[in-house]
Amino acid sequence: MAKARSTMFFCKECGYESSKWLGQCPGCRQWNTMVEEPVVKKNSSTVKIERSSRQPTRLGEISIKEEERTSTGMKELDRVLGGGIVAGSLMLVGGDPGIGKSTLLLQVCKNLSERGHKILYISGEESLRQIKMRANRMGSFSGELLLLSETNLDVISQVITEQKPELVIIDSIQTMYREDVSSAPGSVSQVRESTNVLMQLAKGYGISMFLVGHVTKEGVVAGPRVLEHMVDTVLYFEGDRNAVYRILRAVKNRFGSTNEIGVFEMMQEGLVEVENPSAYMLNGRPKGASGSVVTCAMEGSRPLLLEIQALICKTNFGMPRRTSAGTDYNRINLLMAVLEKRIGLRLSECDAYVNITGGMKINEPSLDLAIVMAIVSSYWDRPVKEDYFIIGEVGLSGEIRGISMPQQRINEAKKMGFTGCILPAVSIEGLIIPDGFCCIGVRSVQDAIQQINHQ
Which of 3, 176, 273, 297 has the most neighbouring CB atoms within 10 Å? Predict the structure, then answer.
């Protein structure tokens, strides 16, 4: 009789199981992602939840109704979640250490508990006194907010089953463990099994849960990638923890649109919402400076005005330097190659530095024309009109292609006091141009550059 194996190999990306080590995972085709973990022994500690019916249901018999949502008391967070918290949803919040994940969730607990909701905050990293000290900085707490410092998932499951709160915070999922899994907390097996138990509790009892997840140096949640597939919503905190502003982004949301963002400012009392992100992004913009161009990006359904800065100077070495902050480095090289080929700018002799101010990371193609104009403006040392913004995608032939949702971008710019824009000619058709606003349509990079010469 064959002896049962005590260990198996698991893929950190997709959770694929194998009895032997493989260089490439057959499931997700990633290399060097297989790790050895003890085999999980199934026993009676698995959460058992009674189901009302096990019979399949015809599609036509299923009634569709709008999901009931609970407001978090923070408009920016509600926007990212799609309108609020859905009962029984499992949400994952990731971000760098010290960026404000625990602070944000504790503020949500404060807002909901004051409205009469029963909240359970479970911490595997901080003691109850540490949580109390952080809560005191946010002001007085009133309502039913229960705290628990525990990492044993069997104990946590029992407490949740007995208390049946409306919202549970798990801080963090990498510290949770099950006794019947012999691997260390944070391993592939522990994270996967812990998330599975919490998912059963959330769906079975209709309890909403926030899971805090640590991130790796690549910026993704540590542990198996299957963790992101199991949850309903994945939120990422972006920004420098040494800066005052934070950006919360939804990269997955089963109950709303993805790529929505919320902007927060870190203050002494916690995170404060930034109601007008466009004004914040343009705060401190230089007047009459070359290489500075304003553009408008779409984050989900929200238009966001940004400043793109470029600095072009002669290089002192044989190999010119290229640096980009907030956008794709390879995209910058591509656009500079277009300028050198189609316009004749000798950028191969220059160092180039491109920056999106405000700590934003944008890879939207509609920013191409603004980056090109910022580079040309810095190269010729000629400023672009301060009250105009520029949008458009640039092709390899130097043509300007159309963009999505130009009407929303123009309305946002008009609200912020801009008087005109340079955009693709194909995107002007059907636009409702506000009074006093000028739209200049261009078909090629040459047409756009002429606007600098005709100022």
Answer: 176
